[in-house]
Amino acid sequence: MRAVVLSDTHLRDDGRRRLPELVHEALLVADAVLHCGDVVERNLLDDLATHGPVYAVLGNNDVTLRDSLPERLVVELAGVRVGMVHDSGLTKGRAARVHRMFPDCDIVLFGHSHAPVDETGVDGQRLFNPGSPTHRRMQPHPSFGVLELDDGRITAHRVITLD
Question: CA 66, CA 160: separation in Å to the nearest integer?
Fold first, then answer.
């Protein structure tokens, strides 16, 4: 199973900003889409759902989605337990903190900082922030993530930079 991981897209319905073409290409072969918050408006979630199941959490800028998205979510995909939250807090102490939030998850996805993270946390738990494909903030490049999951294992995890 292949999942595209997005966060911090900040896309409004005004059409001034769009997902990059490389993200659209990845979505064409995705089995699921995981969005770690700051979607901003529902239309993006509806568009992503044309590519497969969408799992999303509430970000601090998702004012219009407060009643429809959870702050935290756990899903099982291909036997892998995936925890999702928008803001994992400060870098210092993150690994222990997200392990307390999601003690039974194999991987925890988060966003908020726009800074990509792909590292091992407590007890081998993978910590993964895809960055932002549309709003790089202080990062050198916009980015998004791809996970490949099979039979209870994370077989690949990549942050893909754009530009």
Answer: 29
